[in-house]
Amino acid sequence: MAANEDEDASYVDYEAFLDPSFTPSSFANSLVLATNNPNDTPLDLSTPLSKVLFDAQEVDSNIDLLTTRSAIPLLSHATEQTEASGRIISEIDNQVKSLNESYKQLEKEVIQKHAEADEVRQVAARLWETLKLGRSVGRCLQLGRQLEIQHAELGTSGSGSKKEDHRALVRCAHTLLSLREILDKKAPGEEGHGLDKMNAIKSLQEIIIGPIERSVRSTSEQIVREFNVGSASGTTTFAQSEEAKSRITSAAIALYLISPIPGTKPDKWTPQLLLQALEVYLRNSLQSSIASLARSLATLPSLDRTLAEVSARCQNIVALEIILSTTSAPPHPLLPTHKHTSSDKSNLLQYLLAYLETGSLASYFWRTMASSLATRVQEIVNRGGVSARTLKTNRNSVGEAIRECVIRGSRPPSTVAITKGKAPKGDPEKSSGWDREVAVMVGSVVGNLGR
Predict the structure, then answer these.
(1) Are 433 and 343 in contact (CB under 8 A)?
(2) Which of 429, 272, 437 has its CA nearest to residue 360?
């Protein structure tokens, strides 16, 4: 009751000070306006300042009074709080000591052992990488030795002391692909990662892989360039013809396998080395035929022999077409499997026909020759003289001879078997299947003679 009476007797406006919206500036402004006339100049600030000081003294007196009256309860409460804090600190110290001891034990039993185990793991990982690298190097060296043996089995042809084994070309090609498959996988975690830094591998590539790959390529290209089933002389035996077919098949497959794999889509890949070699063969045959036929048209007595040679070259091309059509494209280990199941590229001939944009090699041969032969005939006519007059006089016999040459050259050689419906278009005994080629060839000569 006494405390309440003291609060009631106090002239301090506690409610104003405890109001949540109280601000010192607003309170000071109201206090100045309450003790002064707004029109007075200057304002009297001593009165409101005395008011504030009296209020502060009153509050201080009340605090002293309250603390004096409640000293014992306050001291008791403070003592209780201090004792409670001491007990809490004591318990916390015990827990901290226990936690520190547990951490030391954990560090000794787990962390240190984990650090040791991590070192062992790093050592084991490096040993494993070294082992994998050693295995990869060993496999490359083994394949390199195998490649040397296979290349030695290839032997030499002609006057060499060893008989040529053309099938070794395919074996060398497969071994080269195995080496390429390892050496090209250089990403971390792959079999060939880190091999490019090994001196043994560098030496292997420089001394064995590179030279043998070039040798396989050059030998295969030479076999393609020299392909001949002997249709010109007619003296080739069946065994010799079979040997020629086997050699060209081995060479074609070898060039197919070692053709580079560019960074294109698998379905766009083509065996560039094989196509280039076959294109060179066709180009050489065409150039030789065009040059010899142009000379013979200027000197007609040699025309029959030249036409026989031209038809023989075309028969070789027909034989090549039949052989390629019966040679399936081998599975390429560096290409996806589905690439080899495509029906439009089931044999090696399809790649060449697509590359030359033609439907038949014989048709390509005659049409290309006709396009080049027309200008040669015009040159003979423009020069005039005995050659031009003789050619114009014998135009009918020349046209008939060229017709027979096209028909004869478009027939497959007797030593090359036609299987699985792969025969050239038309009946071998009739010319109806080659009427267009006959017309183009005859027209390129007779059609440019004028009257």
Answers:
(1) no
(2) 437
E-strand spans in 316-408? Answer: none
DSSP letters for 234-294: S---HHHHHHHHHHHHHHHHHHHHHS---SS-GGG---HHHHHHHHHHHHHHHHHHHHHHH
Predicted local distance difference test score (pLDDT) of residue 339: 47
Count Cβ atoms below 10 Å from residue 409 Cβ, excluding itself.
Answer: 27
Angle between helices 395-409 and 435-445 (to 10 degrees): 140
Residue with tokens 């070294």: 130
Per the model's pLDDT, the better-predicted residue between 236 and 96 turns out to be 96
Tens digit of each residue's pLDDT (9 = 90 or more) over 27-52: 888 888 878 877 777 777 888 888 88
Burial tier of 97 (Cβ tally within 10 Å: 0-12, 13-18, 19+):
exposed
> How would residue 9 be classed by pLDDT, with cut points 50, 70 and 90?
low
Hunting for tokens 């010899």 — which residue is that? 292
Query: Counting every residue, how long is the chain?
Result: 451
Chain-centre distance of CA 34, in angstroms? 93
Query: In whole angstroms, what is the distance from residue 256 CA to residue 260 CA?
Result: 9
pTM of the model: 0.70
List CB contacts of 241: < 8 A, sequence separation 6 or more: 229, 230, 413, 415, 416
- From the number of C-beta atoms within 10 Å of its C-beta (0-12, 13-18, 19+), residue 37 rates as exposed
Question: Which residues, including other chains, have CB under 8 Å from residue 169's CB and lie 6 or more apart?
Answer: 154, 216, 219, 220, 250, 251, 253, 254
Contact 350, 359 (CB under 8 A): no
Which residues on neighbouring strands pair with residue 328, listed in sequence order?
347
- Whether 227 and 320 have beta carbons less than 8 Å apart is answered as yes
Report the SS3 class of residue 193: coil
Confidence tier at 285 by pLDDT (50, 70, 90): very high
